Amino acid sequence: MIEVLASGFLSTIQDAGRPAYQRFGVPVSGAMDADSLAIANLLAGNRPEEAAMEVTISGPSLRFSAANVFAIAGADFSPTLNGEPIENNRAYLAAAGSVLKLGTVREGCRAYIAFAGGLEIQPVMGSRSTYLKGKIGGLDGRALRAGDSIPFAAPVSSLPNMPWRFLGQNFGFPKTPHQVLRVIPGPQFDAFSEDGIQTFLSSVYTVTGENDRMGYRFSGPAIAHKEGRDGNIISDGIPMGAIQVPQDQPIVLMADRQTTGGYTKIASVISVDLPRLAQLKTGDTVEFQMTDIRTAQECYRKRARFYKDLYRQFNERDLLSAHIYRVGMPEKIFHVTLHEYK
């Protein structure tokens, strides 16, 4: 069991979400940064989509009432285990009574704590993700708070290749306050003027204080519609990463987005770049760069292959031994960056 001693700014239980219920108006929810969720879970011996703890801005303090393996991925919260600094992107065994603390974020915005065997939480519509506004899923549909206790589903005291279940501190994309996000044209791309599209693709936009798990509102140069058009349309479906422009400013919709919306969508952020956006906070900036659907699909396939390769390297002893033999230095095996696969 994991006991919450302090909750941090916003800590919730999230997995890959509940996409099968959008036709009934139920938001997908799930992890904002799907890459970090997957990495934490793979390190902890779980499936990439398993439920984990998503922490935002400032982290929780947790006590292990039973021993278990865990891993942290995503933003840097200066984590400690029993007062000793530990690393992101590495599996650790916490003995019963151990205290894990995450401080205030240093770089990025969100991190994920995965526990081997997962957490014993009743699924709602096939998912353990928390949708806060609807009070659905997770722990009573709410953020975690001090005094909460969550049972482990199947805790373990060790995993295969424990000494080599790590990826190195430099793994992944840099959690910098400026990101370039690749986009593909949205369903109302032709509602915007040529000048408006050029402005959208050549300007820097700043994350405003209106950002949360539902979406990010940006401020920057005005994005013009064609003459006679405005930001209103008959409502249609909204994927994660859709960029609405209701009043000449972009809003990127995220995990807790509504299922339909009535504003023009100039573009959508490709799925492999959404984790970059999820690590931004108020005052950070982005640029939007046009790409095509073929590139987006190939990036998605490369990421899926990367996760599969990681699972094999962490869990197949013979393959791991071959890597050690070929590389010569075990600590170099997993020193890769995810954007190499994008």
Would you give an account of this structure?
The protein is of the alpha+beta class. The protein has 3 domains: 2-164, no CATH class; 178-291, Cyclophilin-like (Cyclophilin, Beta Barrel); 301-341, no CATH class. Helices cover 17% and strands 28% of the residues. It has 5 helices and 20 strands. The chain has helices at residues 34-43, 194-202, 274-278, 293-315, 317-327, and strands spanning 2-6, 10-14, 52-56, 61-64, 68-76, 80-81, 84-85, 91-94, 99-101, 107-115, 149-150, 178-185, 205-211, 215-219, 232-237, 242-244, 251-253, 260-263, 265-269, 285-290. A 7-stranded mixed β-barrel has the order 12-19-16-17-14-13-20. Strands 7-6-9-4-1-11 form a 6-stranded antiparallel β-sheet, with no helix packed on it. Strands 2-3-10-5-8 form a 5-stranded antiparallel β-sheet. β6 and β7 (84-85) form a beta hairpin. α1 packs parallel to α4 (293-315) and α4 (293-315) crosses α5. The chain is elongated. It starts with a strand and ends in a 15-residue tail after the last helix. The model is unreliable at 321-342 (pLDDT under 50).
Key traits:
28% strand; Cyclophilin; six-stranded antiparallel beta sheet; hydrolase; ATP binding; elongated; alpha+beta; single chain; 342 residues; 5 helices; seven-stranded mixed β-barrel; 3 domains; nucleotide-binding
Q: Major sheet, described briefly?
A: 7 strands, mixed, barrel
Helical content class: 10-25%
Tell me the strand order in the biggest sheet.
12-19-16-17-14-13-20
Count every helix, treating DSSP H or I runs of 4 or more residues as helices.
5
Morphology call: elongated
Low-confidence stretches: 321-342
Q: Provide the structure class.
A: alpha+beta
Q: How many domains comprise the coordinates?
A: 3
- Beta-strand content bin: 25-35%
Q: Count the beta strands.
A: 20
N-to-C terminal Cα separation, in Å?
Answer: 37 Å
The SSE string, one letter per element, is EEHEEEEEEEEEEHEEEEEEEHEHH
Rg measurement, Å: 20 Å
Which whole number gives the mean pLDDT? 91
